[in-house]
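User: Here's a chain of 350 residues. Predict its fold as tokens.
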Amino acid sequence: MSVLLIPGSWPVPERSVDSTPSLLQSNIKKQVQKFWQGSPCDSWFTNEPCGTLAFYRSLDEHRYKVHRRLQSAVGFEKTRGLRVLEIGCGCGSEAECFARAGAHYTAVDLTNAAVSITQRRFQLANLEGRFVQGDAENLPFADGSFDLVYSHGVLHHTPDTPRTIREVHRVLAAGGRAVIMLYYRDSFNYHVNLGLVRRLRAHLLRTELGIKLARTIWREPEEELRRHAELIREDPGSYLEMQNMLNRNTDGPDNPLSQAFSKGSAHQMFRQFRDVKTEVTFWNPNWLPVIGRLLPRSIEDRLASHWGWHLWIYAQKRHLEFTRPTGIPCPADSQITHAQVPSEALAFVN
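Assistant: Prediction complete.
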């Protein structure tokens, strides 16, 4: 078994697309990193001890129950022999799927918490993978390093999402594919749930009775509802701004940044690619309080395909005259040396 943690060690050539990020963007990114360092994606959905087999299995069970179409949307069975990069590995659910399918898997994540949790998963499962802590806006990989770049619900949390898409294009080999999921702006969640229902709920959360009523209706943890109530008391005007409604009501009340994109903006970001296709999926029953959980699955699926929250983008990097056959290891592999995992990187899973 070969499990590597490589803290940004791959050579990256100079490129003209680089620009100095603003101080505001830099500060936001630090907040994003701090938030996800303390709350790796999906880790809050289980009470099992972090880093145990039970922890990973319970997370997978929940993830693929909620995201019923995720596995078919990715097509893991088609990745054997491919060099796969996942941007934002979370707790490693898809990472394990890629590795078991026979892909040459690499993870990059802004936090060492996600990197160490996913690495621990691979160690328990006796799987091979490479793990890098790095920034999606400045990927620490050489041009043309991967055949597939995958990212699920990550790139909308960084200040400069278009830049991350340029980076995805750069690190893909000619003919390589990108499979990216972003939050969808033209969705029921954005316009109705966040724009109207959650704003009305904010007024409900101003009272103790309202908090208890909200818990019954939305089935959210009381701790989260009380945190929302605290933020509303601190600055009700700011809380109700649409950007903050989006931030605080997608991945937790203290989430510093979320963005949502239309199909048009997605096509604009992926204009360097060819065969760009989009698909809308994912419906949350909680968006329709009380009646949402009574809807049959066929209606849920129909709602998801038109007004769902997840915008999947499938795109291919244009072929060049000479391309490397898939399945051949990256030449840069010979330059990689085994590295010990820093003890501080494992702090979250100990």
